[in-house]
Amino acid sequence: xxxxxxxxxxxxxxxxxxxxxxxxxxxxxxxxxxxxxxxxxxxxxxxxxxxxxxxxxxxxxxxxxxxxxxxxxxxxxxxxxxxxxxxxxxxxxxxxxxxxxxxxxxxxxxxxxxxxxxxxxxxxxxxxxxxxxxxxxxxxxxxxxxxxxxxxxxxxxxxxxxxxxxxxxxxxxxxxxxxxxxxxxxxxxxxxxxxxxxxxxxxxxxxxxxxxxxxxxxxxxxxxxxxxxxxxxxxxxxxxxxxxxxxxxxxxxxxxxxxxxxxxxxxx
Length: 268
Fold this sequence. Notes:
Largest sheet: 9 strands, antiparallel
Distance between the termini: 16 Å
Helix content: 25-40%
Number of helices: 5
Order of helices and strands: EEHEEEEEEHEHEEEEEHHE
Low-confidence stretches: 68-73
Radius of gyration: 20 Å
Mean pLDDT: 89
Shape: globular
């Protein structure tokens, strides 16, 4: 497992997702996933919700292109199994499993990557064992992804969307005499390790407003997605660790030292 690269006392993260796409199961597995929740998860995740299916982009083509893995036949619903405090969430869908942490209340604190990694490992292993025991076969992991969503709120350093250069390490202050009011960014980067391509890093920056409709925020979303690095669950964990490290580095490069000081950057 990789070591932590950066750490903040008060990070702006509001959601973390660790997930995998897998093959080897049919759409009929939906009934088994409901039974899995009832028999194995209900005590820890007492609430179950139906959500639209998640269609995962496929990162297997050459760098610079992407495709969508379109469903075949009728779409199957995605199940959300939620903990009592709503912070923990498991996503269950034929071909897709994810483990989320969400900041529900302002006082909630992110419990760090080691906890997210452990939760993913625990519940995916439990799902695999259940499906094998029920004769559905073992999920064959094809792709992995890790996502960090951050809500960057006003502070002593910035007060409006036009102050993006105080938050981010890029952008135009003005064009001729016209001041910039906000920035929106969406881009992708090829991920390489020792010269070998292993996935992509997606970055989105969106201006938004808080629940009151007045307070400006910037939403910074970073997703690393690619094939497992090795076989089985260990190969998925290796990718998730490496993807999370890439997200750490990108976050540090994209944001300013002023914001690092506000969030309490800790040097290992």
